[in-house]
Design goal:
Keywords: Hydrolase, Magnesium. This protein is of the alpha+beta class. It has 3 helices and 8 strands, in the order βββββαβββαα. The strands form 2 sheets. It has a 4-stranded mixed sheet.
Length: 147
């Protein structure tokens, strides 16, 4: 059997001191996450980030930079995630758009609110991405090559 990590993307969006998150139903209960999901066959990392943000929040996401690449092994499951987190902006909210299955709602939270709800995060990557964003970490999109 060939081992493969789960490749995921996440949209990191901050507006006026608040971060865009989603509240979602998971096998572990209701959790908070950035708009995020798996890369589908045939799409680029950027296309996946844009798609996932629209499907989970009803906003159009425009990636502006790469926040970072995150490797995380779930401590209770035999799953490793490789997350590409993109910083960007959102617009064109379509309030009538149905959100993905399992997504309860999109919400905006301050960094302190994100920190205070750490026990409800889908993974440690949620807070790590917020802290890296606040520290000013970012890389140009051209560090990623799609062939």
């Amino acid at each position: 059997m060939i081992w493969k990590p789960h490749t995921t993307v996440a949209a990191i969006v901050e507006q006026q001191g608040r971060f865009l998150l989603v509240e979602e139903e998971t096998a572990d209960g209701i959790r908070l996450n950035q708009p995020a999901g798996h890369v589908e066959n045939g799409e680029s990392l950027l296309e996946a980030a844009v798609r996932e943000a629209r499907e989970e929040t009803a906003y159009r996401f425009t990636p502006q930079s790469l926040l970072g690449i995150y490797h995380w092994r779930h401590p209770l499951k035999d799953i490793t995630y490789l997350r590409f987190a993109f910083i960007g902006q959102v617009d064109d909210h379509q309030a009538d758009l149905a959100l993905d299955d399992g997504i309860i709602r999109a919400l905006w939270m301050t960094a302190d609110e994100v920190r205070a709800t750490q026990a409800q995060h889908r993974s440690p990557q949620v807070l790590t991405c917020v802290e890296h964003y606040l520290a000013g970490q970012h890389f140009p999109l051209n560090v990623i090559t799609h062939l």
